[in-house]
């Protein structure tokens, strides 16, 4: 499918006038897209007695489904009643307005039933353990929220499994059932007859178009439109957006569904965390500064929120502020400023999952030196030089650093799982003779010669939809 703006073409004549003269392949159920959802759909259809065939656009050796790139966590509510209660809140356009609920009770009830059965289904597939994530620090008092539990699968090495582990687990039952997965076979459209009935799928394979018959159903599990910048501009309320998911998700399934007359729903609904996006790499990276000190500032060099609050899927909303006087987005981009000690402490991105994770779309250097050399991280000899490079007032940037030191408090709540570095406190640089414990116990911060000598910054393209292009940085 083209990567133009998602649009509908429901003219039945255009859709059935060129029915295939023969079917190159056939199955009861054809699944389009092979990520976590595709694997579950294929296994479920097979176990209901259907012959199943899967079409996947990416090559097997370069497969980067969203499931593989994710943290690999699974929602398993404690009970259906609590799940329904929570969805009646989060399904609102405005969670404070009950009348803005925009999901039917039937859909809510069905979702709750299946979400609560996740554990049993996974155990049936061979899961032998679950690792709960720690309390994510939610402060809402919604009924049932405490029952919304999130887990990792227990990996074979005894550690929590991430996205690659989760997909490997889901791929196992597909292989065990000998379900055919056709790689490098992107679907290009649905085939239907004059009655509007779906007969199959057109796909490209080995450079030619083939027709695949679906005797009973076609299931579209080919992702969203994370990889389609044109659709971002059409449907989402801010630009640019940095996408941390699969670059291959270009809205193909949405277009195919629209050709049948399907409507679009909640296209502007976004959740997301801050990501780092660079012009010469297709996917964004998930930041991980929690092993050291940093400040996050807007375009003017001002801090706008406590750094330990810039976390989780609601993070995006901290950046979506529009200045109606200057007609600008002051927090697009966000700049992370950190010192040389933090640079040497370890990667500033997560390497357990995402583009720098086990898929090895990119191997991030252990001390961030390679990224400095690439210009992804900008090095300066002091805050004045850094401010000049970024076009900021140096006094504003210095004030942000000072304000961070003077207002920091001990970090007492866990916001991610214990194995996740984000659960550690965020600290400002301290003098070498000061211990970490002492730095946490005082209200005033210490000055840092290291910070003044060589601050570094990485510019964030601040937002990501789950699941969302332009970039950050100059030369070192």
**Largest sheet strand order:** 6-2-1-9-8-7
Strand content: 15-25%
How would you spell out the order of helices and strands?
HEHEHEHHHEEHEEEEHHEEEEHHEHHHHE
Sheet/helix structural class: alpha+beta
| Fraction of residues in helix | 25-40%
Let me know the average pLDDT: 82
Q: Write down the domain tally.
A: 3
The quaternary state of the protein chains shown equals single chain
Radius of gyration: 24 Å
For the record, the CATH class of the largest domain is Alpha Beta
Largest sheet: 6 strands, mixed
CATH homology superfamily name of the largest domain: Succinate dehydrogenase/fumarate reductase flavoprotein, catalytic domain
What is the CATH topology assignment of the largest domain?
Answer: Flavocytochrome C3, Chain A, domain 1
């Amino acid at each position: 499918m083209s990567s133009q703006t998602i649009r509908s073409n429901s003219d039945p004549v255009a859709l059935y006038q060129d029915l295939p003269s023969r079917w190159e392949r056939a199955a009861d159920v054809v699944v389009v897209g092979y990520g976590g959802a595709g694997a579950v759909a294929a296994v479920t259809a097979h176990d209901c007695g259907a012959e199943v065939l899967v079409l996947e656009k990416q090559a097997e050796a370069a497969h980067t489904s969203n499931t593989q790139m994710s943290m690999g966590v699974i929602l398993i509510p404690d009970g259906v009643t609590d799940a329904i209660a929570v969805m009646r809140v989060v399904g609102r356009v405005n969670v404070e307005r009950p009348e803005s609920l925009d999901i039917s009770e039937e859909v809510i009830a069905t979702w709750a039933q299946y979400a609560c059965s996740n554990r049993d289904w996974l155990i049936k597939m061979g899961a032998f353990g679950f690792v709960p994530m720690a309390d994510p620090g939610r402060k809402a008092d919604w009924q049932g929220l405490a029952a919304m539990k999130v887990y990792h699968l227990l990996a074979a090495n005894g550690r929590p499994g991430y996205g690659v582990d989760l997909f490997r687990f889901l791929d196992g039952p597909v292989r065990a059932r000998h379900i055919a997965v056709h790689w490098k076979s992107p679907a290009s459209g649905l085939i239907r007859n004059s009655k509007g009935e779906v007969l199959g799928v057109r796909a490209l394979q080995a450079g030619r178009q083939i027709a695949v018959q679906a005797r009973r159903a076609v299931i579209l599990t080919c992702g969203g439109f994370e990889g389609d910048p044109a659709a971002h501009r059409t449907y989402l309320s801010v630009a640019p957006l940095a996408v941390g998911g699969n670059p291959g998700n270009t809205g193909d399934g949405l277009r195919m569904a629209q050709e049948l007359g399907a409507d679009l729903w909640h296209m502007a609904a976004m959740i997301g965390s801050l990501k780092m996006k660079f012009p010469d790499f297709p996917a964004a990276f998930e930041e991980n500064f929690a092993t050291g000190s940093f400040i996050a500032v807007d375009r003017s060099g001002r801090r706008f929120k406590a750094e330990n609050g810039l976390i989780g899927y609601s993070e995006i909303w901290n950046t979506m502020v529009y200045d109606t006087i200057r007609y600008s987005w002051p927090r697009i981009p966000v700049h992370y400023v950190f010192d040389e000690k933090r640079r040497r402490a370890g990667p500033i991105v997560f390497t357990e999952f995402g583009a720098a994770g086990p898929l090895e779309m990119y191997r991030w250097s252990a001390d961030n030196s390679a990224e400095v050399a690439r210009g992804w991280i900008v090095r300066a000899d002091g805050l004045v030089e850094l401010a000049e490079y970024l076009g900021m007032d140096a006094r504003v940037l210095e004030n942000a650093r000072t304000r961070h030191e003077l207002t920091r408090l001990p970090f007492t709540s866990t916001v991610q799982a214990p194995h996740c570095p984000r659960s550690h406190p965020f600290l400002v640089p301290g003098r070498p003779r000061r211990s970490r414990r002492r730095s946490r116990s005082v209200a005033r911060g210490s000055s840092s010669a290291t910070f003044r000598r060589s601050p570094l910054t990485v510019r964030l393209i601040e937002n990501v939809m789950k699941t969302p292009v332009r970039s950050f940085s100059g030369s070192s």
